[in-house]
Write a structure and sequence with these properties.
CATH topology of the largest domain: Spore Coat Polysaccharide Biosynthesis Protein SpsA, Chain A
Distance between the termini: 54 Å
Structural class: alpha/beta
Order of helices and strands: EHEHEHEEHEHHEEHHEHHHH
Oligomer: single chain
Length: 332
C-alpha cells in the first residue's frame, strides 16, 4: 500500500484561485483513497469557503476538511492544518498554486527513494492577470536576475538545495524538529528547511516535480510582497546568520549605496556622477534581460516591464531588509 498523504494548505481570500487548486488536487495520479486535504482558512471575507463547500459536495470521494486559522498567518495555518491531518506524509501547497498531475506521486517517490527529508519541485510561474505588467512580473519572478539562486523558480536539473517552497516530508520529521515558526510572518519555509539541514537532513529539488504559481499582478502588490520577504528575512538571519547567501546581501547594499550617494551628491557634484554611473551599470543588465525576454516571447512590452519589475523586487526587498535591521537595532 502506498503511504497516506495529507495536503496542507494555508488560505485567505482565495476565491479566484482555490477552485483551480482543488481541481488540480483531484486530478492527481496518486490514489485518492490514500490522499486527504486540510485547508486552514484565516476567516476569509470573500467566497472562498463557499467555493470549497461546493467542491466538497461534488467530489465526496476526496477527503477534504477546512479548519479555522484564527491567527491568520501562513505558518500558523500550516501548523493548524498539520495538527488536523493524519497522513504519514505531509505536502504543502498554497491557495494560489496548482500542482501538475504527478506532483504528489513524484514527491512520494523521491521520499521513498531517500532523496531527501524534504522534497519539492519547480514553480511554473504564470501571470496573476492578463495585463502587460502582470505578464512582465511573471517573467521577472522566474528570472535569475530577479531571484538569484532561488533554484525552485528556474532550475533545470535535480539538485540538493537550501529550500523548496511546496515540499513534502514525513510526519515523523515534524515530531523531531517541530512545526513552522509562528513568530515569522514570512520566510517560514526557509527557516523550516534550515532546521532540517541543521540535523543533517537534505532538501531535494527535482524540476520534474512541477506546480503552477500565480505571481502578483501589479507593481504595488509585488512591492508589498518583496518588502515583506526582505523584512522577515532579516528576522530569520538573526537566528541563523550562517544561512546568509550572497544574493541576499546585494539588494540591501544596493539600496544603501543609492541612499548614501544621493545624499553625498547634494554636497559634492562628483558623487552625482558616481550615482549616475551606478544607475547606468545597474540598468544595462536589466535592460538586456528585458530585451531578450521581449525577443523570445515576441512581446515588446517586456522590454520595459521586466526591468521595471526586477528593479521593484530588488529595491523593496533591500528596503524591507534594512528597515527590519534598523528597527531591530533601535529596539535593542
Amino acid at each position: 500500500m502506498p503511504p497516506t498523504v495529507s495536503i496542507i494548505v494555508p488560505c485567505f481570500n482565495e476565491e479566484k484561485r482555490i477552485q483551480t487548486l482543488l481541481d488540480a488536487i483531484f486530478a492527481q495520479t496518486y490514489p485518492l483513497d490514500r490522499l486527504d486535504v486540510t485547508i486552514a482558512d484565516g476567516h476569509s471575507t470573500d467566497r472562498t469557503r463557499e467555493v470549497i463547500a461546493a467542491f466538497q459536495l461534488a467530489h465526496a470521494v476526496l477527503a477534504l476538511q477546512v479548519v479555522d486559522n484564527d491567527a491568520g498567518t501562513i505558518p500558523a495555518g500550516l501548523n493548524r492544518a498539520m495538527a488536523a491531518s493524519r497522513g504519514e506524509i505531509l505536502l504543502r501547497l498554497d491557495g494560489h498554486s496548482a500542482p501538475e498531475r504527478e506532483y504528489v506521486e513524484k514527491c512520494v517517490a523521491a521520499l521513498e527513494a531517500g532523496r531527501g527529508e524534504n522534497v519539492g519541485g519547480v514553480w511554473d510561474i504564470r501571470p496573476g492577470a492578463e495585463s502587460w505588467l502582470a505578464r512582465s512580473i511573471a517573467i521577472a519572478a522566474a528570472h535569475p536576475l530577479g531571484v538569484g539562486d532561488a533554484l525552485y523558480r528556474h532550475a533545470r536539473q535535480a539538485a540538493v538545495v537550501d529550500t523548496v517552497p511546496f515540499g513534502a516530508w514525513r510526519r515523523l520529521l515534524v515530531e523531531k524538529i517541530g512545526g513552522f515558526d509562528e513568530s515569522l510572518l514570512s520566510n517560514e519555509d526557509y527557516e523550516f528547511n534550515t532546521r532540517i539541514r541543521g540535523i543533517g537532513g537534505t532538501i531535494w529539488l527535482d524540476p520534474a516535480i512541477r506546480s503552477v504559481y500565480y505571481a502578483r499582478s501589479t507593481l504595488g502588490a509585488l512591492a508589498r510582497q518583496y518588502w515583506r520577504y526582505g523584512f522577515w528575512k532579516y528576522k530569520m538571519l538573526r537566528r541563523y546568520p550562517a544561512s546568509l547567501r550572497w544574493r541576499q546581501a546585494l539588494p540591501p547594499l544596493f539600496v544603501v549605496s543609492l541612499f548614501a550617494m544621493t545624499l553625498l551628491a547634494l554636497v559634492w557634484a562628483h558623487w552625482g556622477w558616481l550615482l549616475g554611473f551606478e544607475l547606468v551599470a545597474y540598468a544595462l543588465p536589466l535592460g538586456w534581460a528585458g530585451l531578450r525576454a521581449a525577443l523570445q516571447q515576441r512581446q515588446a512590452f517586456l522590454a520595459l516591464g521586466v526591468p521595471l519589475a526586477i528593479a521593484v523586487m530588488h529595491v523593496t526587498w533591500g528596503g524591507g531588509f534594512l528597515w527590519s535591521l534598523f528597527s531591530g537595532v533601535k529596539k535593542s
